[in-house]
Design goal:
- The chain is an alpha/beta fold.
- It has helices at 19-32, 53-59, 85-92, 150-162; strands spanning 8-12, 37-41, 65-69, 72-76, 98-102, 111-114, 129-133, 144-145.
- It has a single domain, classed as Rossmann fold.
- Helices cover 25% and strands 22% of the residues.
- Strands 2-5-1-6-7-8 form a six-stranded parallel sheet.
- A hairpin with a 2-residue loop joins strand 3 (65-69) and strand 4 (72-76).
- Helix 1 packs across helix 4.
Length: 165
């Protein structure tokens, strides 16, 4: 766990299961409740196109490269082929209360699965999944919430991760 004991919770599920939609709503609820939230999204897609200024600077040898615009900074930093989530957290996040992650199914961090009927359940094989988001009853032995119960999910997270700190 991170040195400040910041809860790191991954939202996992198969592609097109609704992870991003659910996570965006969860972040809104957390911020409304007064928490400082960071988000990390894993992607298999290239982050930027070739021939853009930031990629040209990186290819020239700069690392990290920051792209700055009015009110926003985006940073790229080489971290190896597929940087472990633990390394990312240690390097970049120390002023937040909670970190939500989308993806990183193979990480050791606690996870909430956004269940997709099209694919098999992840929770049956991954014991780090502590809650399930599903629009239909699935008979799971872990707490299950509907996608609309975002407030209840955040209250559950607060009880589980902040009442013990």
């Amino acid at each position: 766990m991170h040195k400040k004991n910041i809860p790191i919770i991954a939202i996992v599920g198969w592609s097109k299961s609704g992870k991003t939609t659910f996570l965006a709503k969860l972040i809104q609820v957390a911020v409304k409740k007064g928490y400082k939230v960071a988000a990390i999204k894993h992607t298999h897609h290239k982050i930027e196109e070739k021939k853009k200024d930031t990629s040209r600077l990186r290819e020239a040898g700069a690392d990290p490269v920051l792209l700055v615009s009015k009110g926003l900074i985006v940073m790229t930093k080489k971290m190896g082929e597929d940087a472990p989530l633990e390394n990312i957290v240690e390097k970049f996040f120390d002023s937040v209360d909670i970190i939500f992650v989308e993806g990183f199914k193979s990480s050791k961090f606690p996870k909430i699965e956004v269940f997709s009927e099209k694919e098999g359940p992840l929770y049956e094989k991954d014991k780090t999944i502590f809650a399930l988001i599903s629009s239909k009853a699935v008979g799971a032995e872990i707490p299950t919430f509907s996608p609309e119960e975002v407030e209840k999910v955040m209250d559950f997270i607060v009880h589980k991760f902040f009442s013990v700190l």
